[in-house]
Amino acid sequence: MNPEQIQTLINLLMLIALFAGLAGWWLTRHGGQRGRIAERTRLAAHAERIDLATGNDDELNFRARVMRRLARIGDKLPLFDAKYRLKLRKELIRSGYRSNLAVSVLLASKFCVGLICATLTVMMGSHIPMIGAYPAVRGAAMLMVFIVGMIVPEYLLNFVGARRRRAMAASLPDALDLLVICTNAGNSLGVSIRRVADELASICPPLSDEFSLTADELKLSGDSTRALNGLAERIDLPSIRALISTLTQSMRYGTPITQALRTLSRTERLQHIVSLEEKAAKLAPKMVVPMMLFILPAIVVIAAGPAVLQLLDVIAKTK
Prior knowledge:
It is built from twelve helices and no strands. The chain has helices at 3-30, 32-54, 62-76, 82-94, 102-124, 135-184, 189-199, 205-220, 224-235, 238-253, 257-286, 288-318. Helix 2 (32-54) packs antiparallel against helix 3 (62-76), helix 6 packs across helix 11 and helix 8 packs antiparallel against helix 9. The longest helix has 50 residues, at 135-184. 22% of the residues are buried.
């Protein structure tokens, strides 16, 4: 066998070892009668969620089919326990994904991305200089890339959630001003939140969506404390938690909600102005490095270029 065939055989053995390790983990977690019962229970719950979320198979488009396939893979993965799935569920809700299939789709995406990265590492590992000739190093690199590939989708989810929360925090002072106006007009809390959600639909859709859900919960359940605490849990911002605390205390002790909202709105507006001033103060130090790298060399060339050319001409004539 030539060296290329040997490298190909080693790559195939590494992939087989990876799949064998995953299969062994699967059998360890799902072996025995208890594992089979848990598997059937999970598959039954997953089938019920699919029926409720997607409906008839004939009406599914391509995207829905892909989501269903990923959800099936995510439900069958033994690498993630219930505690970790609950954590991902909270992160997905805070990022705006409330579907019943969201956790399973995310887990399947993590596994697929990690597997693709590991496969590419095994296939291209032999071409890496200095370390490509050692199978043990390539195997360690395959495992590392597999782990990193599984982490990347979660980081992307955190990035989307952070950007969503920043957008809601920027629009919160306007929402509080609208709440003050609605409560001054004599509207109840649920009606005021619904009206604010309708007004914010074109300005900040994420905040409008959260307020709409809270208004629906207030209308259906009637438990205002639970609905408001759910809003604070979904958005997870200090300003929102301050708003919920103010509203719950006002309803508990019978103090006027309008006055509390007006004070909170003034405080949030002041904090927003302070944050903008802080960003403006940080702008000058941040501009130093780009100016030194891109603007200063051009100025030096323009200012000193003619003198350098003349000096070169004088040196050339003297020679």
